[in-house]
Amino acid sequence: MRILSGIQPTGYLHYGNYFGAVRNWVRLQNDPANETFYFIADLHALTSNQAGYKSEVQVYIENMVVDLLASGIDPDNSVLFLQSDVPEHSELFVILSMLSPVSWLERNPTYKEKMEEIKGKDLDNLGFLGYPVLQTADIALYEATHVPVGKDQIPHLEISREIIRRFNTTYETEALIEPQPLLSEVPKLNGLDGRKMSKSYNNAIYLIDDPDTVRKKIMSMVTDVKRPKKSDPGHPDECLLFPYYAVFCQDQERIEDVRRRCMAAELGCVEDKKQMAELIIDYFADFHRKRQEILAKKNMVFDVLAEGAKKARAVARQTMEKVRQAMGMDTLRRYS
């Protein structure tokens, strides 16, 4: 399989990003049957943070590369690159936008959801409406056969498949490949307030957070609203913290013991949060050690992105040659 996936540099990577995408990227990369292309989608980030690109987005990009490398993404096994370093993304986006009905984009299930979620940002722009077209260009450019998605993201991929199908039909070609969804199980990891973990909600724990910050954030969680006193029986299945055990604790007996003690009022929420914070800190200890090693290597981030862009462009150029030939746009070659 040739696999492609990307992530927007709209903030620092948080635990939701790690367990929802990055950990799976590493697993897919380490399968010798796969070719993996992973990119930082900075063009997509422009839809909601135009003014901040020169300052904060650049910081997010650099930190994201460090976090991905520390998480196990290997530039020797995966092509890791910055979207804007490959101009063919923009070229194919323009071509595909001419074939993409506005009605298809307006029915995108997350269009209105994002408008509601990201308040205070200017999303009333053509780029935000047309981001599924750019997403299609991202995928098609590398002839990706599979895209890792959760069940809720399948409709997004179907829009890409429809756009690619329309291109191939219009120009009577098979130049672009229709990608298939690669469903992955994503562990449930809510934010500190119980909602989906998100930078926009200010409820995230970030990969860069040091142990003291992790402890402070975990201790701030409201865990069991039905348990005002420690002497009251707990409700682990309604507690915001308890699902974290399934992610950070591999000892099923310990998890069941926490459940039993909570329900028997033997384990208080404060003690529970303290032990969870230590579980999290232990879980990411190796990550933080690798992160410091990477930061100590001067220019490593830029070297990785430069090499990734070189590899990505080699593939992207070949795809654009096929696209131009299918459309009859390879005029300079015919004139030469």
Structure description:
There is one protein chain. With 336 residues, the protein is mainly alpha-helical. It is built from 16 helices and five strands. The chain has helices at 15-29, 42-45, 53-71, 88-97, 102-106, 111-117, 126-129, 131-141, 154-170, 211-219, 243-248, 252-263, 269-283, 285-295, 300-327, 331-335, and strands at residues 2-7, 35-40, 78-82, 146-149, 180-183. The strands form two sheets. The chain has a three-stranded parallel β-sheet. α9 links the parallel β4 and β5 (180-183). It is elongated.
Summarize the structure.
The chain is mainly α. Helix content is 53%, strand content 7%. It folds into two domains: 2-188 and 299-335, Rossmann fold (3-Layer(aba) Sandwich), CATH 3.40.50.620; 211-283, Tyrosyl-Transfer RNA Synthetase, CATH 1.10.240.
